[in-house]
């Protein structure tokens, strides 16, 4: 009985979300900021969940996300730059003949194939990143905790350096970056791609593989004694995590329409780590919620701190460009102080959980009322 | 065949840890259906022997055979699949997972239905059933040990190796644990290789015992023989040789 009720709630939520997305799509011009924040937020949610899979569920402290996102973004971009503007994009150093041949071949493919191109591009980006992850995983996954973090961070920086190096000019366009990338057709498309990615990772975590990941996180020696092959499962988690980081990178490229190597610095990894920590390490719904909230506060809700504020003729001090990031840092500090395990801890969102939290709040306030009378 | 009822046979096993020889050519046999104990002081190499059998450590030389088949140096995964499970020292349950999840991970290599085995473990340890949704880290030491044994049973082993199950437990709980080991042996017909520092208790429940000193086996016999041996009494049971 209860589960069917919860199912109805979830369906209602899905319908409301779809209606909201549709509404925003129609009134794009009026609600531009909400549109942007939702797009960027859900794209970052994909990479945050993938980082959570690797760090929160398998216990591998990896900081290579930006590197894998860069791979995904560049592969996707090369797929999605229109063939007739390719010369224009690579105007500085010319296009590599390999890319030109590839693009002409894409032109000759049947029309249904071309209409699926965004999905194919994102998948291809993910696969290339997964290949890289499998290769660097062989040496790197033998390292533990901080050493793994340093090694993956190093990989991410090497990737960025390679992309912006002059030797790669004809492929990545060096420091000029890639432009004119085909964007998403609608907000609903972004959400559908993200939903497919996140659902896949949720199913993985709920499977026996996910159980093995958690066992490795909790105690490697005990997990090994249970017959769990440590290297195989760590690699699997790392490769799948990198795949989805790259898909998210590709989505970011489609969202921004133009990318360059500077987009994928270490600070991007830290932004994602921050989302994961705020949402709760080991909570998928926490990561999704947190990436929407963090993106919204960074880009939107705290915006007004950046413009001068007048009360009468008195100008409030501190309100100038950049102040928003100060406030943002303070908010983060408060979250870390009062919600040490993040907004969700290791729990997942459920209707029962929400009802429980609501009842708790209600009984608290009614208790307060009681004491007033006494 | 000589090894017909011997589930596990170890011949001349030597193991080194970074240049230090921890096990120096030991031989022992574990007959099917028996409790065999390996007693000895700290650092005698007992745990190393178990870890080597489990495939967590690679031996330097020697041979380990299981049901007449050479299993020296194969991976832990294959060893668990063949039916040997280790209950590691210090219990090592997965603290942030529930009791039920811990049990399911014990059966990780099995693809068939787990419910019968879960029920079997719950029947053996009703306490675990009461706490199946509790996080393993919040259990008491004795309950964690039950869980560690239950988790090992989930892989349907033929041989369970237990590394110091009494470590860090109150004396009254230690007795419970020894009862559990006897029960698992009698009711499930499980063969058990038990490593213990608590020689008195281990020898009481064991069919056979080996005494391990600085990487060598110095004595062997039935549990009773060793319990009454003057040297064992003096060295491990805290009784004077002269009396």
Distance between the termini of chain A: 41 Å
Overall morphology of chain B: globular
CATH architecture of chain B: 3-Layer(aba) Sandwich
Integer tally of domains of chain B: 1
Structural class of chain A: mainly alpha
Major pleated sheet of chain A: 2 strands, antiparallel
Q: Can you walk through the features of this model?
A:
Chain A is an all-alpha fold and about 375 residues long. Chain A has helices at about 1-25, 30-55, 65-80, 85-90, 95-110, 110-115, 115-140, 145-165, 170, 185-205, 210-220, 220-225, 230-255, 265-280, 285-300, 325-340, 350-374; strands spanning about 310, 315. Chain A has 17 helices and 2 strands. Chain A has a two-stranded antiparallel sheet with strand order 1-2. The model of chain A is unreliable at about 370-374 (pLDDT under 50). Chain B contains 10 helices and 10 strands. In chain B, the strands form 2 sheets. In chain B, strands 6-7-8-3-9-10 form a 6-stranded mixed beta sheet, sandwiched between helices. A 4-stranded antiparallel beta sheet of chain B has the order 2-1-4-5, with helices on one face. The longest helix of chain B has 17 residues, at about 170-185. Chain B is globular and about 45 Å long. The N and C termini of chain B lie far apart (about 45 Å). The interface between A and B is medium-sized, with 17 and 25 residues.
Keywords:
heterodimer, A: 374 residues, mainly alpha, two-stranded antiparallel sheet, 2% strand, disordered C terminus, B: 243 residues, alpha/beta, Rossmann fold, six-stranded mixed beta sheet, four-stranded antiparallel beta sheet, 27% strand
């Amino acid at each position: 009985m209860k589960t069917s009720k919860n199912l109805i709630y979830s369906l209602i939520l899905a319908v409301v979300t779809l209606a909201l997305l549709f509404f925003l799509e129609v009134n794009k011009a009026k609600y531009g900021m909400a549109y942007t924040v939702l797009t960027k937020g859900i794209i970052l949610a994909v990479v945050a969940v993938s980082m959570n899979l690797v760090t929160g569920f398998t216990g591998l402290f990896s900081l290579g996300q930006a590197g894998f996102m860069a791979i995904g973004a560049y592969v996707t971009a090369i797929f999605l730059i229109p063939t007739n503007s390719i010369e224009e994009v690579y105007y500085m150093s010319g296009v590599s003949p390999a890319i030109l041949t590839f693009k002409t071949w894409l032109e000759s493919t049947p029309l249904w194939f071309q209409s699926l191109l965004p999905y194919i591009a994102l998948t291809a980006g993910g696969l290339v990143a997964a290949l890289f992850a499998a290769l660097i995983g062989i040496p790197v996954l033998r390292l533990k905790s901080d050493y793994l973090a340093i090694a993956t961070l190093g990989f991410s920086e090497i990737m960025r350096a390679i992309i912006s190096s002059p030797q790669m000019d004809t492929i990545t366009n060096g420091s000029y970056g890639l432009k004119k990338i085909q964007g998403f057709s609608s907000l609903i498309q972004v959400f559908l791609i993200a939903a497919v990615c996140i659902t896949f990772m949720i199913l993985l975590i709920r499977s026996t593989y996910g159980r093995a990941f958690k066992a490795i996180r909790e105690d490697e020696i005990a997990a090994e004694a249970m017959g769990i092959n440590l290297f195989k499962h760590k690699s699997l988690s790392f490769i799948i995590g990198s795949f989805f980081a790259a898909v998210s990178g590709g989505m970011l490229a489609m969202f921004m329409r133009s990318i360059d190597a500077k987009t994928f610095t270490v600070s991007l990894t830290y932004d994602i780590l921050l989302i994961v920590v705020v949402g709760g390490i080991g909570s998928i719904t926490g990561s999704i919620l947190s990436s929407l909230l963090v993106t919204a506060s960074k880009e939107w809700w705290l915006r007004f701190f950046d413009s001068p504020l007048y009360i009468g003729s008195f100008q409030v001090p501190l309100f100038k460009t950049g102040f928003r990031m100060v406030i943002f840092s303070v908010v983060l500090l408060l979250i870390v102080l009062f919600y040490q395990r993040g907004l969700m801890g290791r729990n997942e969102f459920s209707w029962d959980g929400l009802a429980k939290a609501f009842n708790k709040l209600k009984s608290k306030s009614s208790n307060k009322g009681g004491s007033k009378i006494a | 065949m000589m090894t017909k009822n011997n589930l596990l046979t170890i011949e001349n096993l030597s193991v080194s840890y970074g240049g230090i020889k921890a096990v120096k050519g030991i031989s022992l046999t574990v007959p099917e259906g028996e409790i065999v104990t390996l007693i000895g002081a700290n650092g005698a190499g007992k745990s190393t022997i178990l870890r080597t059998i489990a495939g967590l450590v690679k031996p330097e030389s020697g041979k380990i055979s299981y049901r007449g088949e050479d299993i020296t140096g194969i991976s832990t995964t294959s060893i668990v699949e063949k039916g040997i499970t280790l209950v590691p020292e210090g219990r090592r349950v997965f603290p942030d997972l529930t009791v039920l999840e811990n049990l399911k991970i014990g059966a990780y290599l099995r693809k068939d239905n787990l419910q019968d085995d879960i029920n079997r473990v719950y029947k053996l340890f009703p306490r675990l059933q009461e706490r199946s949704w509790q996080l393993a880290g919040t259990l008491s030491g004795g309950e964690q040990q039950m869980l560690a044994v239950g988790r090992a049973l989930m892989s349907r082993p033929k041989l369970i190796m237990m590394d110091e199950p009494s470590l860090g437990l109150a004396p009254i709980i230690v007795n419970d644990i020894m009862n559990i080991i006897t029960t698992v042996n009698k009711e499930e017909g499980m063969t058990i290789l038990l490593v213990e520092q608590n020689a008195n208790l281990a020898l009481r429940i064991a069919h056979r015992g080996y005494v391990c000193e600085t990487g060598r086996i110095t004595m062997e016999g039935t549990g009773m023989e060793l319990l009454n041996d003057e040297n064992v009494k003096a060295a491990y049971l805290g009784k004077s040789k002269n009396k």
